[in-house]
Amino acid sequence: MDRAAVRAGELALSVDSTSFAQLPGADLLGRVAPMLQWQHRRAEHGLWPYFRSFRTPLAAHAVAVTEDGRITEGVNFGCQDYLSLSTHPLVHEAAAKALRDYGPITAGALGLNGGQPLGEELGAGLGDMLGFEHCLLFPTGWAAGYGTIQSLITKHDHVLLDKLAHNSLRQGAAAATANVRYFAHLDNDSARAQLRAIRSVDSRNAILVVTEGVFSMDSDAPALRELIGICREYGATLMVDVAHDFGATGPDGLGQLGAQQVLDDVDLVVGAFSKSFATTGGFLVTRSAAVHAYVRLYGGPQTFSSALTPVQLAVALAALRVIRSPEGAQRRESVERIAIRVRDGLAAHGHHCMGNVVCPVVPVLLGSTEVARLAWRLVSEHGVITNLAEPPAVPADRARFRLQAMADHTPDDADQVVRTLDTAIRSAKKAFDDPR
Ligand SMILES: Cc1ncc(COP(=O)(O)O)c(C=O)c1O
């Protein structure tokens, strides 16, 4: 069965999407066709995991269907609802009430009548939880990272990012200045060396250093206390994106900022609602009223994109209440137990789960993109919904599964995922060792 896929051709198994980015030619619309051929080729062999959709709520067991109609019905380790709050009755009640009270849409962008009392309450709650006075809401987590950097940084400033920083942060930096540099992933010495180099030629302009609380592709976290010290040494400002860890991990749900006790010392924090808060949206917290007002006025996604809807605000607010309650702590413990069980189970079968922290994401390193694509097809055929991470989302030869645990998973779910992955990975590797 797998040999056919192995032999199906270079296009389906080994080529990645970078081959079709930046295609040259005068025919702007025609020149993009090879990408679609590649996509079709992959889909023909069941090797196209993208643009799949769920046909059920995002519960621990669900049904997902690929674009070409391949159905996976089974245990769901493929969504970001880490605390299982998208199916929580309080969240649903809050959404229904907001719809009744305020309707389905806002008047426009925040600056143009788009505000809502629910938004004020949500901002105040988030600020209170994190210990920052000012909170600004954004239409998405992506917009929060992008809009904060793009609005605060001028073309003379510098942005220094962790090499694996999220696309929103990279694009925000690229939109603001040509002075963008990267330091080696989690490597504070590398960050220090780059800061020293920048300051040796420019003491007049600002430097923003950007990292994440937990890097979700790798399940690892930076040493923040040391990084804060280095930023201070060189007069740089530190921004941390806590999209994946805030709410879902750490003491009182405070993620790595709480775990490393650095909340009082970080300058700017951005985050997303799309992981632990059961809806879409993002935020920035700051201690400065002026920064809040500035990003609000000059942040592109603030001024030119409509504000979060009443339903989104009500859902995030209801999720925040659960997250801050004893039930939130129980949900964090549950998801952590599942993540540890999956990690331990896979490790016992000789697989490498990446990371230096336990968080709901369990990245399982496979290496070869070809093996990973085939293994993904096999697990999908055997009732496990999960995500494949392949280049360019990860470096060449570092393809992996990205399992996402949820609070509602049971130990049996965890064991099933371990068994299915183990069998699939072995079969896929064998198919490549012996592709006759
Ligand atoms: C670090 C980080 N920031 C921002 C985002 C974007 O969040 P959203 O999908 O809510 O726009 C993500 C998405 O996964 C992320 O990993």
Count of alpha/pi helices: 16
Determine the structural class based on helices, strands and strand pairing. Answer: alpha/beta
Beta-strand content: 15-25%
Q: What is the mean pLDDT?
A: 95
User: What fraction, in percent, of the residue positions are helical?
Assistant: 40-55%
How many strand units?
Answer: 15
Distance between the termini: 11 Å
Shape: globular
Major sheet: 7 strands, mixed
Radius of gyration: 22 Å
Bound molecules: pyridoxal-5'-phosphate
Q: Can you describe this structure?
A:
The protein is of the alpha/beta class and 436 residues long. 43% of the residues lie in helices and 16% in strands. It is built from 16 helices and 15 strands. It has helices spanning 2-6, 10-13, 33-44, 89-102, 117-130, 141-152, 167-176, 188-201, 224-233, 255-259, 289-298, 300-303, 310-323, 326-348, 369-381, 411-433, and strands at 53-54, 61-65, 71-76, 134-138, 158-162, 180-183, 207-212, 237-241, 268-272, 282-286, 352-353, 361-367, 384-385, 387-389, 399-404. Strands 4-10-9-8-7-5-6 form a 7-stranded mixed beta sheet, sandwiched between helices. Strands 1-2-3-13 form a 4-stranded mixed beta sheet. It has a 4-stranded antiparallel beta sheet with strand order 11-12-15-14, covered by helices on one side. Helix 7 links the parallel strand 5 and strand 6 (180-183). The radius of gyration is 22 Å and the shape is globular. The mean pLDDT is 95. The site of pyridoxal-5'-phosphate has 15 residues, from helix 6.
